[in-house]
Amino acid sequence: RLLVIDFGSQVTQLIARRLREDGIYCEIHPFNRVDAAFLEEFSPKGIILSGGPSSVRTATAPRPIEAIYAYGVPILGICYGEQCLVAQLGGEVERATHREFGRADVTVVSSSPLFQGVWTEGGTYPVWMSHGDRVIALPDGFHPIATTPSAPFAVIADELRNYYGVQFHPEVVHTLDGARLLSNFTRQICGLSGDWTMASFREEMTAKIKDQVGDGRVICGLSGGVDSAVAAVLIHEAIGDQLTCVFVDTGLMRQGEARAVVDLFREHYHIPLVHVEAEDLFLSKLEGVEDPERKRKIIGGTFIDVFEAEAKKIKGDFLAQGTLYPDVIESVSFDGGPSVTIKSHHNVGGLPERMNLKLVEPLRELFKDEVRHLGQELGLPEGFVKRHPFPGPGLAIRIPGAVTREKADLLRQADAIYLEEIRAEGLYDAIWQAFAVLLPVKTVGVMGDERSYDWVLALRAVTSTDGMTAESYPFEHRFLSRVATRLINEVDGINRVTYDVTSKPPGTIEWE
Ligand code: XMP
């Protein structure tokens, strides 16, 4: 495996993505956590130094420990990482007066295992440059292997020690051949075989879970989403019925979903499952509450109460969570000097501390699409694995104003028709999230010869890569008309349909 030492670049995570896509297992660790003992313990076959916002010329500049150079494995420095390499090995780096970003063309001046099969001597190739400080003198043993007019040391190598440095970012897609360069570093230079697959992850992780849990009992809260389901199935594979799942049914899920979760776990996987039917409780707590934040707080608080009561009965030793890699990567921040912030998920409030439960988080090392992939590997149905995200507070935040059972039922029915039409049109997988919102507005219509006075439904569909920004999906008008006709004909209580064309920002994906 490979070690990525992070110096705080915005794109460090992409290094891990590119390597894993190529079957190379790697982990990212912040520079100030990698000491000699860590290095021994991790025993990497190669090291990548990431980019970062600092200048190596400042006194407080973060540096990797010198021990990495005595460790004897290949090292690739990217951008700031290249400058560290040069500065620490006796070269010279000049403080730049301004930074330069964007496309540049590098010309290869010497063939290298780094370029094997992609770049040839004399050729010119587009890369994504990020020019901070400039390398002006190379350490002994190094020579340039590619240059640009403004960066004579765009790519440098010391083939004897297997040290390489690139001034640009091979991990971003704008560097067309970047993934191939990284692959050459890990395979040709570090000698890694690229056999890390989901099947091998599954095997290793089940062994680890067995080891961690011993003969303890594990509780896993299912949300109906992909992450908790994949975590549960994997844990069950490892420890069988020492696992008990708890599914708190808020009554605020989409049509057929609660049933589907219960059936999948009980009937298909034979995993012990406690199904808490708490619709009445949630609806009574929400009665008359109109403020979106209060609705969210009530649902979150009620969820924790119900879950905790069930967890107490099970007498577990461990709590399983579907925490993912982006939630746990320790990000390096440089406000007032290097510091480390850790983001962590607490899906069920302070429960682990209160009940003295240890955590089992088997997905901590995976990205979202890797979790989907693992889900497929574990035999979860395709439709389940590819399901659009669904918020914890559920339909309650898609019913602006007070939530009632009648409104929830109406929305569930309308939402199912909308999604059915999207699937029939073959658009489901092209959309990040699609759902209906039941507005607290009544308008006048005419159906047959009758006057109607019913609710308005808003349809929402967005594309997004991470939910942080989003664009409204550009449906064809005839599609929206067809959906509107079906909704008004089939859902009693709705007589008008609108389409939300707001992007995020300034809107959010959900309405509340
Ligand atoms: P917004 O509405 O903030 O949503 O643009 C971004 C993404 O997050 C989902 N979302 C939630 N997910 N609990 C969740 O698990 C929540 O309280 C919650 N609120 C919003 C939303 O569906 C979208 O995918």
Automatic annotation (TrEMBL):
Domain of life: Bacteria
Enzyme Commission number(s) of this protein: 6.3.5.2
Pathway assigned in UniProt: Purine metabolism; GMP biosynthesis; GMP from XMP (L-Gln route): step 1/1
Reactions this protein catalyses: XMP + L-glutamine + ATP + H2O = GMP + L-glutamate + AMP + diphosphate + 2 H(+)
Location of the active site: C79 (nucleophile), H169, E171
InterPro entries cross-referenced by the UniProt entry: Class_I_gatase-like (IPR029062), GATASE (IPR017926), GMP_synth_C (IPR001674), GMP_synth_GATase (IPR004739), GMP_synthase (IPR022955), GMPS_ATP_PPase_dom (IPR025777), NAD/GMP_synthase (IPR022310), Rossmann-like_a/b/a_fold (IPR014729)
GMPS ATP-PPase domain residues: 196-387
GO CC annotation, single: cytosol
Annotated GO MF terms: ATP binding; GMP synthase activity
SUPFAM superfamilies hit by this protein: Adenine nucleotide alpha hydrolases-like, Class I glutamine amidotransferase-like, GMP synthetase C-terminal dimerisation domain
Annotated ATP binding sites: S223, G224, G225, V226, D227, S228, A229
Keywords: ATP-binding, Glutamine amidotransferase, GMP biosynthesis, Ligase, Nucleotide-binding, Purine biosynthesis
Enzyme class label: ligase
Record-linked Pfam families: GATase (PF00117), GMP_synt_C (PF00958), NAD_synthase (PF02540)
Quaternary structure (record): Homodimer.
PANTHER family named among the record's database cross-references: GMP SYNTHASE [GLUTAMINE-HYDROLYZING], GMP SYNTHASE-RELATED
Functional summary from the UniProt entry: Catalyzes the synthesis of GMP from XMP.
Protein name: GMP synthase [glutamine-hydrolyzing]
Native organism: Parvularcula bermudensis (strain ATCC BAA-594 / HTCC2503 / KCTC 12087)
Gene (UniProt): guaA
